[in-house]
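Protein modeling request. Please complete all fields; requests missing the sequence field cannot be processed.
Requester role: graduate student
Desired output: 3D structure, token encoding
Chains: 1
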Amino acid sequence: MAERRRDAEFTEYVTTRSAWLRKVAYLLCGDWHRADDLVQSAVTKLYIHWGRTGGVANIDGYARTVLVNTFLAEQRTSWTRRVLLRSVAEDAVTESADVDGSLDLRAALAALPPRQRATVVLRYYCDLSVEQTAEVLNCSPGNVKSQTSRGLDALRRQLFDARPLSAPAPEGAQP
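Delivered output (175 residues):
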């Protein structure tokens, strides 16, 4: 009977939070199909350890940690270095009015190294503090700050360099 209750709780949690997990996974990896695979792997791990969540105050945080750790572990395997999983025709579903800007941001985010991407996503999409991000990534707050700073600098460089030639130059810029 306890096992049925456990399975029902797990099913309810995954049903209600899968869209959110998929969005976080997409922001980490930049590909909807790979995001689905990451979520599936993370949900499988979450199910195996679902009994541990009884003592966890923030189940979303626990699930997010499992997802991020799954992503980072996948980045360390040689298989992901040999196989590019992005398709030629990227899924471009967006709610933003600035479609081009959104696509540029996604491309710049995908170009970041995995740890920098993870810190930027956790800090600015998941709205975690430096300390919470450090806990999720199992590193020091100083490491989170430096990875976030480097990631944001790289995003700014990539987005500024991606500005079309026809766009007006910023005020005071030399031609």
